[in-house]
Amino acid sequence: MTKGNPQEYVKQLKEEVNDIELSDHELDDDKHTELLSSIGVNVDVDKKHKNKQVRTEASRDVSVFSLLGASGDGTQKKVNLNQLLKGVKESANVNVLKKQLSRVNRPQRHLEAPLPKPVAERLQRKVEYQKTSEKLAKWDPVVQSHRKADHISFPLTQPPLYIKTVDKQLSRKGKKLTPLEEEIYALLRGNKCVERPDHDLTLQEEEILASVSLEEAQERRAELQKHRALMSYHESKSKRQKKIKSKKYHRMLRKRKMKEDATKEDDDEAEDAVKRAERMRAEERASLRHRTGSKWARSRAIMAKHDKDSKELLNEQLQKHRELVTKPLPDSVESDDGVDTNVNANGEDNLYSSENFEIASSNPWLRTNVENKNGKQIVENGGDPVGNKETASDNNEEHKMDSECENESNLDEPKQKLRKWLSSEDTDLDVSKHALDISSSDAMVKFKEAYDKLQHEISSEKKTAPDRAENVFQDLKEETIEEDKEMQDGLNEQCNNAEYDVTVRSQPLQILSRSSGESKSMKVDTDATKSFSSATKVSEQEAEFVAEEDLEMGSEARQQMTIEQAFADDDVVAEFAKSKREIVEEGKPKVVSLALPGWGEWGGVGINPSKRKRRRFRVKPVPMKPRLDQKLGHVIINEKRDVHIAKHQVNDIPFPYTNKEQFERTVAQPIGSTWNTQSAFNSFVKPKVDTVMGSIIPPMNSDEALGELKKASKWKEDRKKLKRKHEHKNKLEKLKMFL
Amino acid sequence: MSGEENEFKTVKAKKRKSTDKLMDSMDIGAAKRPNFPPLSAEKSASGQKNLRRIPVPANRYTPLKENWMKLYTPIVEHLKLQVRFNLKTRNVEIQTCKETVEISALQKAADFIKAFVLGFSVDDALALVRLDDLFLESFKVTDVKRLKGDHLSRAIGRVAGSGGRTKFTIENVTKTRIVLADINVHILGSYQNIRLARNAICNLILGSPPSKVYGNMRAVASRTVEQL
């Protein structure tokens, strides 16, 4: 102890001190553990879980000594007698106790009473059931696969079919070959051209391969391939051409060929062609083939009244006749003609190039404005000259303005602008002013001034007389018209553009007046349909905004018109009501008179059966049940729907189809053998289960059925493996490439 | 000469279309011709109203009523006649009126109704209105040979054949329609065909076996076809 490390020494010392301190406790602990072990309680476990808080539950078997208590794991441990006996070593009557114990410990000699029969049977059944279900479970996949299969043919295992080959025939044992057979055998064996089972190529092929170099062979192959491809292209093309039934096409083809020939060959041949053409012309002139006299033509002529096509056909024929008969003119005349037509075309272009015009006429938004411009506008009453006048004057302005300002007038511009205007919250006069501000020409400025003046007047005197406004505009008009006339000639083309802008400019005013009218109508109108048609887009708020300023500006008629224009398509409710009324009328049973004319009284062209008679034979229709939608204003219920047919109809288009037509086409496709190929038909009508006639269908052999499944799964695995292999290979190749 | 020169170009015809010209000239010609429309039926009858009565036996009353509209419409609309069924006298009465175009329409209509009353179907009878060269012929079995009792029945049976087969065959071969009502035989067809059918029926009544009659009829029919 004295020797050694001082640190160690210190450590030892410390330990000793600890020992001394703990000695009393240790002693106690040891005794305690001994006691515990003697009782049979596992000390280690106990120590481990000493500090563990155990949640106890109220249970029936609670003992004072907690001998029956649950151990930490929750597994109960019974105390053996032997364990208890360890503590009784030094007692005096051990032997007696031993004897007693041995008696107690002796294994039971008597048999347990058998379980009551039903219980035993139940147990047995349970066990049996488990075993059988386990056994049967392995059939589940087989059954599933059979159920899922589109087609099964019984017997499931059919004897394998194979063709007996010569080799196998020859290899039969114990039989002598006939001389012929021997000869054939020798020939087959000795020949170079015979396929060998273990090689891909025959001997001869191998020899050929060896004799030709790879490059040469490739070249030759490529050449042959190309040749073959060309051949096939040509073949397919000519086949296709031959198949075309159109006479016109063939005629054209012939002509083209003729043309080519003519270009290729020398002049003589061309002359020949001309001669041929001349001959054709002469023949045409001599014959009546394409005239109106033929039977076909006459029948067409009769049909022409009813049938447009026949008329066209007739015309075509006549045209053809004319073509054939006309003498080919020299080139100069032709070219003249061509120029003429060109000029015509240009003229037409000029006339119709202004697509704006057409659109304007088709577009209800623009139509009225066009009319305005043309002066077709109905004469207004005194209350409302403003909008119209404005438009007119504005129009004149535009003619000038357009020379300077942008020509790009989008077709939808007016509409869009109006929409914007409608949607904007602050529908003041400012907006309309803004709309007017677009251009920067002198005329425009003038116009603006005039407009401002008008506005000022409106705002200063609350009740502006319409006459006044009219005056202003008349002044303005006079001013502008002079300038206008100068420009007008040069600007005819841009007229259409101008119209659009005019529309834009006139729109705000119209709308102002309209909205004022609206605010009135809102209060009065309670009819559902009308409010539906008019209320939606121009909100009440807007109407109130503007109402004060332009009560004077509009009149009812004008407003009504503009509203109708703006929401021409929106009168849905009335339309619906109308259509419903029609349907209801159609469904009502009608009164029928069964009176026979001429039965008992004279009947003829002008004579109707007498009233008395008609009334007598009138059949009153049986009153129908009230319609289901009679009391529902906004619903039409189709009562004719046939439930029995509806059963076979679909609500939605089934999965692979994207539209109705596709689906209908497939459904309409007949599945009969008359309209399908035999194989397709067979596949359509193939029964789910198929049996081979006369063959015994044995129950499934477990080995085979399960083996097949295994095989299938194995095949799948193999495929996976192969795939993996392939991928790996690819990766490697890529890597190589990369390197 | 190049290919383009060789090509044929259409030149607008400078002449007037010959067809139009033809049509015009024809119109003019038609207009210049004197126009004498045919006399109306009423005028040609010198103002008198012509009337035909066809009696309807009791056994045809119901079929007449059922088919009345089918009978009425062609008579009124096609032939422009007035017609009534007199309930008291059980007669179908047909008369001309202002609208009637042809005087012959009256006879046609009368034949039409008559044929229906005899037992022909409406469609067959309508052929009388449509075609001019169709006739009705009626005779009795007893006219051909005086037969009585079972002999008469057998004769009628021979004409009809089992299930009406013989009658149908005769109808088909001779292109006629035959009604066999008890001892009455009515034949509807063209003159030649009626003669053929009548011959066949007479032979049957006289007792020749149907097979023989067929043979004869076939031969005669083919001969007539060849003649035509």
Automatic annotation (TrEMBL), chain A:
Cited InterPro entries: SSU_processome_Utp14 (IPR006709)
Chain segments carrying region Disordered: 254-292, 376-414
GO BP terms, alphabetized: rRNA processing
Compartments it resides in: Nucleus, Nucleolus
Keyword Nucleus: yes
Residue stretches of biased makeup (Basic and acidic residues): 272-287
Pfam family, one: Utp14
Residues spanning the membrane: none
GO (cellular component) term, any one: small-subunit processome
Protein family according to the UniProt entry: Belongs to the UTP14 family.
Full protein name: U3 small nucleolar RNA-associated protein 14 homolog A-like
Organism name: Phallusia mammillata
Protein encoded by which gene: Utp14a
From TrEMBL, chain B:
Entry superkingdom: Eukaryota
Ranges for region Disordered: 1-49
InterPro entries: KH-I_PNO1_first, KH_dom, KH_dom_type_1_sf, KH_PNO1_2nd
Entry keywords, A to Z: Nucleus, RNA-binding
GO cellular component: nucleolus
Keyword DNA-binding annotated: no
Stretches with biased composition (Basic and acidic residues): 1-10
Domain spans labelled K Homology: 141-206
Compartments it resides in: Nucleus, Nucleolus
A molecular-function term among this protein's GO annotations: RNA binding
The keyword Nucleus belongs to this UniProt entry's keyword annotation: yes
Family that this chain belongs to: Belongs to the PNO1 family.
Protein name as it appears in the record: RNA-binding protein PNO1
Species of the source: Phallusia mammillata
